Amino acid sequence: MEKALQLLKEVYGYDSFRKGQEDIIEGIVEGHDTLAILPTGGGKSICYQLPALLLPGTTLVISPLISLMKDQVDSLHRVGVSAAFLNSSLGAAEYREVLRNAMQGEYKLLYVAPERLDAPMFQTLSEQLHIPLIAIDEAHCVSQWGHDFRPSYRQLAGWIGRMPNRPLVAAFTATATEEVADDIAAMLRLNNPRRYVTGFARPNLSLSVVSGVDKKRFLKDFLKQREDQSGIIYTATRKEAEEVGGIVRQFGLESGVYHGGLSDTDRAETQEQFRFDQVRVMVATNAFGMGIDKPNVRYVLHWQMPGDLESYYQEAGRAGRDGEESDCILLFEPADMQVQRFLIEQGTGDTERKSIQMSKLHMMMNYSRTQRCLQQFIVDYFGESDVPVCGKCSSCLDKSEAVDRTEDAKMALSCVGRMKGRFGVTMAAKVLKGSRDKRLLGFGLDRLTTYGLMRHLPEKEIADWLYWLVAEGYMRLSEGQYPTVSLTASALPVLEGKEMISQRVRASVRQAASASS
Ligand code: ADP
Fold it and tell me: In terms of DSSP H, where are the helices of 253-329?
């Protein structure tokens, strides 16, 4: 692949490939359908742009991100590659002109938004043009199991299949669990694809979960040390974005606010200000970020837990794209779960989709509570194993004292075991508390031998304890809107007294725990 390396140097001015890039490019050029899962900032674009340069004809790039298309086409122009895009940002005349030029084979790369594509267009393009490769960016959008399903992606496979000469298909995404990757390959009808999963670990990011703090104070202290750094604060709702934006200004820092409720002009303006460091802190909902490539974001702070780990890591991963040390902080409160659950319930998905979202939410919750290395937890989730502990996340750095909670664990596990997987965490906590709740009494749960076993603790703390046991894998929650809790195989050794359970706890929890013994 000398040619590829030469082009990398000549066209892009880079000395070497990043992890995975060369194999992917080689695979495509040799004629293999491809499914590549590379983290945000991993350098996906080059993986299809270089093959486009190496192969004769026009490569189609399907991408849902209008702003990203423009950025990419601009930067391709800067390095002397002919490229264009077709999306809703073009006026009718411009659109026709691009299409006309495209039909004459003037572009090496043509970016197209999936909504813009239809069967006749595919037909015409493929009759008139030599299309060696179709690159599908953000390919997880084709999967119901992904976190950003877009129905327009579903049509692609059919159209591609009906093209007179089926081009190679290369699908790219930053976030796909193994399940989603399988689904992408099936939905896009990839032909015996080569699969690549690389580089999810981001060694320059320090991940932390911070819980049980006064968020406003935390933010104040945090920003004080970072006045001259660029950072993004993500909130779950537009209203919160406005509020937190206001708080940041109270602290005397310029902040931009970005969410879907603002006009296109306002958003574009704020984005530019942030990009050129006129505004240091961007407070935004998840509407911000698709395709932004600001290298020097030093921190990404989540004001609340997002709905799934894919979204979290994608958003957090916008920190440190230049490779410099950066921080990703998640402020977490157990109540965040309720907010996310509400968002799912109010969402547009059907029942199946909602139940998938609920199980993703539980995984996010587990991340927020785990004591495992956070970097390991995430890459494991994305199917990459054998990554060493990072040594700098909040779990790795946690020096707090470990408390023996084996007895508490036995009580909780035996109670949940006796409830036979028919109830949720809230009900299990009520039983352990010995609550006189009407539903509980109606089910006769006060007759369980474990009823009231943990009455010395507040009910909320018992629920937290149960969630902790879920996060550590001793119990599991079912999928669906009203998840029930049941034991996993890991519970047995604890119940049999063969395994001890210790928990690293903050002072307040420590007091409660010691009160029980
Ligand atoms: P993403 O995977 O998020 O689409 P990009 O393709 O936008 O990532 O690449 C992220 C950044 O890394 C870009 O600024 C890109 O120019 C740069 N980059 C990609 N490949 C290399 C390389 N081999 N050497 C140096 N920089 C690279």
Answer: 264-275, 309-316
